[in-house]
User: What shape does this take?
Amino acid sequence: MRVPLQGLALLLTLCALSAAAETARIYVTNSAGDSIHVIDPTTQKVVQVIGGIEGAHGIDFSPDGKRVYVSNETDLTLDVFDRASGKLVTKVKLSGHPNNIATTKDGGRVVVGIAEDPGALDVIDTAALKLAKTIPVNGRLHNVYVTPDNKHVITGSIRTKVLTVIDLAAEKIAWELKLDEGVRPMAMEKAPDGSTRRIFAQLSNLNGFAVIDFAARKEVDRIKLPDNGFGAQERRLDSPSHGMGVAPDNKTLWVTSISANAVYAYALPELKLLGHVALPALKVEGRQPISAVPNWVTFTPDSKLLYVSNAAARSVSVIDTASIKLIATVPVGEVPKRINTVVLR
Assistant: This one.
């Protein structure tokens, strides 16, 4: 049968879009369970469950998509899994209690925030799968991130209220910034040359975020989100905004709010509010509606879909970033928190 040129072009476009969409998976760790759920972004269904890991926290991947790295709060290890099979490869003993993790862009190292005093950043050699170095920092670490240009690791401490930037090549502290509240989740905006332009940092007791100029090494703005009355019953007012991310295309910043039970979208670089998505509230008889407790976020590689872990709702919300609308809710495990995207090769 002869296919019209217009029809052939449409078919090829759809096939290309389908192929592109199938190159990613969304992973979410269930902090109060013993599993990791894997979501297919083409169907919004759970397609794999990795079990037997109690206390799973941070999660990241090797650049080739073959390994899954997970910080294990129970065993104080970095657990390494084969992505395809979901089987445990090995457990790397850490220097202390781990929090969040990040993989360097070249895949050679995994950095792990140590949430014990006096505070440290563990550096794992991924070739040897061993702890290669422990870098002392000022305070137990909550979150760690590798900058887009692979030159620095950005870390934050809730206890000491210090944001620390570590030089990856030298594996030592480059500079620190003292803030007035504890440093919680962060996100980074790229400059045109690929370097880090700004850091967006959520802070304790702030329903919003601080804006930090990376080159100037100082806070330049602070943005507050609306408060819709959520959070008090959940006793989360010490951390009313806890999850944020810059889309892969570097055009938007998305920020969750427990107090508003919503996620907010800002245009970059101007930080203009584009809109928000209200998340499903939990209704309990005899009580005020409870926030879904939205936490961390991740995106599909094309920036078209945003995923938000709902710690109180055992679910992940899927948001269309163009229309700023909720399009799906995916049930997962107990108290889902850390969430990340792997690109399949």
Observations:
- The longest helix spans residues 5-21.
- The chain is about 5% helix and 50% strand.
- The chain has a mean pLDDT of 91.
